Amino acid sequence: MAETVIYIRGIHPRPERLIDDERFINDLRAVASLSDDQVNALRQKLSEAEGFLSPATLKKSVREFIQKPDTLNALHRIVRSLKPKDAEQVLKDLDQKGKEGKPQFDTDVLDRVKNILTKLVQPYPALIRFEKAERLARATGEELESLELICDVRPIFDESRKQVEGMMPYTRLRVVVSGVDGLPKSFEAELTRQQVHDLAEKAEKAKSKLETLHQNMEKWMPGCMPDLPLTRVSRKEASDA
Questions:
Q1: Looking at the DSSP assignment, which residues form a beta bridge with residue 105?
Q2: How far apart are CA 226 and CA 133, in angstroms?
Q3: Helix axes 107-120, 84-99, angle to 10 degrees
Q4: 188 within 8 A of 172, measured Cβ to Cβ
Q5: How many separate helices (H) and strands (E) can be counted in the chain?
Q6: If you write DSSP's letter for every residue of 132-177 in order, what string do you get?
């Protein structure tokens, strides 16, 4: 009898409140060191940003004003993860901690955190556009995790099963996607030699059409394409299969 396997993926405990997360508190402590000039310049830069504020673009924008890695990464996480209503709740929870006699920060640091969160956590249009693009990328189909074309041969034996009289080449297409629950789903199919050639031809046509679409979209609306895995070409090494 086959052994039962339980697949658990990407599950980790999360605190009920952000202020109970030690890393988040450390992030707040790091950004509390920002000066008023830095905060005001960052807010203006992010408010005026055009196109899509992807993680890479956001970090590049922040790096213009902050060079210290810890502070840069902390601010990047806060701006990316918090909405204005989240920031309001964080500030309420911090005040409640103080009333309970368990303050997370000294009074002067807390005042600085409040000032910075209120100013920097905003509904930046370029960030909202990127988040919409992310949702669309997830909503339009199941994400491909891996695709393999596995080529092999199978022996053809004689009636006695002692002599190999021939070989049968075959190609197996194995596709793995992420389901709506985040867990992998896969299927396999045997392809004929002709189907392998057809698949290669269709892939080349798709590459040509995508290149044409990308070029035309940039002409119609420069900067209109978000930097996402769905639109990006990775130069990774091919599988050995």
A1: none
A2: 7
A3: 170
A4: yes
A5: 8, 3
A6: HHHHHHHHTSPEEEEEEEEEEEEEEE-TTSSSEEEEEEEEEEEEEE
Contact 59, 76 (CB under 8 A): yes
Q: What is the DSSP letter of 33?
A: T
Q: What is the pTM assigned to this prediction?
A: 0.66
**Taking the mean position of all CA atoms in its chain, how far away is CA 78?**
16
**What confidence score (pLDDT) does residue 70 get?**
92
Report how far residue 69's alpha carbon sits from residue 204's, in angstroms, rounded to the nearest whole number.
42
Domain regions of the chain by residue span: 18-138, 141-220
| Residue 189 in this model has a pLDDT that exceeds 90 | yes
What is the total residue count of the chain? 241
Q: Centre a 10 Å sphere on the Cβ of residue 222 and count the other Cβ atoms it contains.
A: 10
Q: How far is residue 23's CA from residue 76's CA, in Å, rounded to a whole number?
A: 13
Confidence of residue 97 (pLDDT cuts 50, 70, 90): confident
The HSE-up count of residue 13 (CA atoms within 13 Å, CB side) is 4
What average pLDDT score do residues 90-112 get? Answer: 88
Three-state DSSP state, 108: helix
Q: Is the pLDDT of residue 18 over 50?
A: yes
**Per-residue DSSP letter, 110:** H
**Radius of gyration of the chain measured on its C-alpha atoms:** 26
Contact 195, 173 (CB under 8 A): no
pLDDT at 51: 87
For the ranges 113-117, 126-130, 183-187, the lowest mean pLDDT is seen at 183-187
